[in-house]
Each structure stands twice: as structure tokens, then as C-alpha cells.
Write a structure and sequence with these properties.
With about 350 residues, this protein is an alpha/beta fold. It has two domains: about 250 residues, 3-Layer(aba) Sandwich (Rossmann fold); about 70 residues, 2-Layer Sandwich (Rec A Protein, domain 2). The chain contains eleven helices and 16 strands. Strands 5-4-6-7-3-10-11-12-13 form a nine-stranded mixed β-sheet, sandwiched between helices. Helix 5 packs parallel to helix 7. The longest helix has 19 residues. Keywords: ATP-binding, DNA recombination, Nucleotide-binding, Plasmid. InterPro entries: DNA_recomb/repair_RecA, P-loop_NTPase, RecA-like_N, RecA_monomer-monomer_interface. Belongs to the RecA family.
Length: about 350
């Protein structure tokens, strides 16, 4: 036996052979093709299963809407979904109307009191499903934590309000620092996307540059495979706020190209709820890519010249998102064949 073979044999005895390559088993659709394109460069594939992902930004930006579509994508692939509602704001009716299967077993909604309870239940849920083969091994799991900044550590929950000290502000960061390394491993082992929604806060200690920060210290950002930052600009008409123009920037991406962006409008309904304007966003994206042609103030669509407003309204009434998606898919296929 050669020296190289002897070394290889000795190493194999130590490690027990070559380990399996750790890769992404599923790409879950975010429900919005421009965001998928920013994440992976593919119209129907967005976030990876088996990883920790952090999506953060101001309120009413569409974070929960996107998380619902990710859970729907997991269900369509034969998997299950769990929503940890720390904010107590999950709207079942809207999620069901969007297409989420609320049947007990396919979807679970929990209202944990503390950070520790939430993480423990989520890990037990994922492990139990895999250990007992409740779904095929090829089916992804999704857990959504809404939101990280609302996850109260047990140490704070046990104290009276007048007993809280400055050090208690660091309790969440300490919890995240302890838990996230293990969660990253468990997410991969159970092929579970663990999505942490989060809001941003201003850091008064920063005088220049970006003075915003997320919750939980540095651990969530470090152990997240993908981080999506959402910024907003108010949409007004006649002095009335109708919604928000959202820009999503992929500030970290360890499974694709980072720093790409996607835009959408998040509009408010009369009942106080909101919706992500997928149709308007898709029309704008297709124009930007040159798939739909624009001539001055008009848009050329299926042989007709129309203004954007009436076109978007007509497509919205026809629920034509899938038709617009097909245009993008065909365009990407044609480009791939040319290359």
C-alpha cells in the first residue's frame, strides 16, 4: 500500500468515510417572481430549505405575506408549515384566502410566550416529523417566527416591570448567541427553512451612515444563510397614504449572488389589512427587463397600446399573475438557450 493510500485509509478510519455533500434540497417560491430573481436568478425558486433566513424591515412591508407564500410552497411540495405568532397578529382568514391549507396537521399556529418556548417547540416539531416519517423525506418543512424582536427571553418574562435592568436588554442577544449555532445544524438535518421575521430599530449611538439595527445581536445575521432588508417609501395621493413602495435588498446570500434588489407596492385596504401588489410589480419588472415594451406614456401589450393604470387594473381583475409569470419564464428559457 502506498503512503498516500495509507494516509487515506487512516483518515477514513477516523471519520468513517466521506461525508455527504450538504446542499439545498428545495427552493421555495416566495410568491413574487422579481424577489425570486433577486435571490436565485430563477423565476419560481426563492429561499432555500434547510437554512436559517432573516427578513427584516419596517412594518407593513409584506413580510408576513411572503412568509405565507413560502408556507404554501412547502405544502405544495408535500411538506408542513408552522407559524410562531409572537406578535399575535396572524390573520387566518387572509392566509386561507391566499391558499394556505389551514387543516390541522398540514399547518400549525402557535402563540408561544417566550423565546425558549418558541425555539424548543419548533425544534421538537421538526424532529418529530422527521423521526416518525410523517411526510416523505423529500418534502420540506417551514417554520416562521413572527417576529424576532417580539420573542421575550424567559429571564425577562419572570421579572416584574420595575425589576428590569439595563442588562436585561442584552438577554435576547445572549439567547440568540447560545441557540443559533445549534439551530443552523438542526435546520439542515431536518430540511427545515427557519424564517425569522424582524423589524428594525434605530441605534442612537451611530451618528453617521446607517443607524438601523435588527434584534438579537449579531448571531441571527451571522448564522442566517440569506438576509433580506426591506426599506419603504410612503405612497400618497391627495395627502392620503395609500400604501408603501418597498425595496427588498438581499444583503447576504450564501447560496447565490448577493446585493440584488426587488421592488413592490404594499397597498392598504379599507379594513386595515394590506396586500402585496404582485400584478403591478410584475408589469413594472417585465417592462424593466424589456419583455413588455414601453412606448412613451403607453405600454404595448398583446398588440395594443394602453396606459399602465388601466392595464394593471384589468390584469388584477383577471387574476393574471400566472400569465405574467409565464412570460418571464419563457423569456428566461430563451435567454438560457442563446447562452
Amino acid at each position: 500500500m502506498s503512503k498516500t493510500a495509507s494516509i487515506a485509509s487512516a483518515i477514513e478510519d477516523i471519520f468513517g468515510g466521506e461525508p455527504e455533500t450538504v446542499g439545498v434540497r428545495h427552493w421555495l417560491d416566495t410568491g413574487y417572481a422579481p424577489l425570486n430573481m433577486a435571490l436565485t436568478g430563477r423565476p419560481t425558486e426563492g429561499l432555500p430549505s434547510g437554512r436559517i433566513v432573516q427578513m427584516f424591515g419596517d412594518s407593513s412591508a409584506g413580510k408576513t405575506v411572503i412568509s405565507v407564500d413560502l408556507m404554501i410552497a412547502a405544502q405544495k411540495a408535500g411538506g408542513l408549515a408552522l407559524f410562531m405568532d409572537h406578535e399575535r397578529t396572524f390573520m387566518k382568514a387572509l392566509a386561507e384566502a391566499r391558499g394556505l391549507d389551514m387543516t390541522k396537521g398540514h399547518f400549525s399556529l402557535q402563540y408561544p410566550r417566550t423565546f425558549e418556548e418558541s425555539i424548543t417547540k419548533a425544534i421538537k416539531w421538526a424532529r418529530y416529523i422527521r423521526d416518525n416519517e410523517l411526510v416523505p423525506a423529500s418534502a420540506p418543512l417551514v417554520v416562521v417566527f413572527d417576529s424576532l424582536n417580539s420573542m421575550v427571553p424567559q429571564s425577562k418574562m419572570e421579572k416584574e416591570l420595575d425589576e428590569l435592568k439595563m442588562n436585561d436588554k442584552l438577554a435576547l442577544a445572549a439567547c440568540c448567541s447560545s441557540v443559533f449555532p445549534a439551530m443552523a445544524v438542526l435546520a439542515e438535518e431536518t430540511d427545515c427553512l427557519m424564517l425569522f421575521l424582524d423589524q428594525i430599530r434605530q441605534d442612537p449611538g451611530i451618528m453617521f451612515g446607517d443607524n438601523t439595527k435588527t434584534s438579537g445581536g449579531k448571531a441571527p445575521g451571522f448564522y442566517s444563510t440569506v438576509r433580506i432588508a426591506l426599506s419603504r417609501k410612503v405612497i400618497k395621493k391627495d395627502g392620503v397614504e395609500l400604501g408603501q413602495a418597498i425595496t427588498a435588498k438581499v444583503v447576504k446570500n450564501k447560496v447565490g449572488r448577493p446585493f440584488r434588489t426587488a421592488q413592490w407596492d404594499f397597498m392598504f385596504d379599507e379594513d386595515g389589512s394590506g396586500f402585496l401588489d404582485r400584478i403591478g410589480g410584475m408589469v413594472d419588472y417585465l417592462i424593466e427587463r424589456g419583455i413588455i415594451k414601453k412606448a412613451g406614456a403607453y405600454i404595448e401589450f398583446k398588440g395594443k397600446k394602453v396606459h399602465r393604470g388601466p392595464l394593471v387594473e384589468a390584469l388584477r381583475k383577471a387574476d393574471a399573475y400566472d400569465d405574467l409569470l409565464e412570460m418571464l419564464v419563457e423569456f428566461e428559457k430563451a435567454n438560457a438557450e442563446v447562452e
